Amino acid sequence: MNGAQWVVHALRAQGVKTVFGYPGGAIMPVYDALYDGGVEHLLCRHEQAR
Predict the structure, then answer these.
(1) Alpha-helical regions (H) of the chain
(2) C-alpha span between 33 and 14 (Å, rounded)
(3) What are phi and psi of 28, to 5 degrees?
(4) Which long-range contacts (CB under 8 A, 24 or more apart) does 26-33 make?
(5) How many CA atoms lie within 13 A of 41 on its CB side?
(6) In Å, what is the CA distance from 15 to each residue of 8, 10, 49?
(7) 3-47 pLDDT, tens per residue?
């Protein structure tokens, strides 16, 4: 199990079903683990984003 999988495991253990965030760069392994672990992700956007 890698670090990203441990993060998702800890989230699931706390009953987290949905996370909010902005993917990119170094966080991508966590997003892969979220997908594999069945945790829903909702994309956040900056207020000026269209």
Answers:
(1) 3-13, 28-37
(2) 16
(3) -55, -40
(4) 29/2, 29/3, 29/4, 30/4, 32/4, 33/2, 33/4, 33/5, 33/7, 33/8
(5) 17
(6) 11, 9, 31
(7) 999 999 999 999 999 999 988 889 999 999 999 999 999 998 877
Place of tokens 């993917």: 23
C-alpha–C-alpha distance, residues 8 and 6, integer Å: 5
Q: Which two tokens stand for residue 10?
A: 């800890």
Site of tokens 């706390």: 14
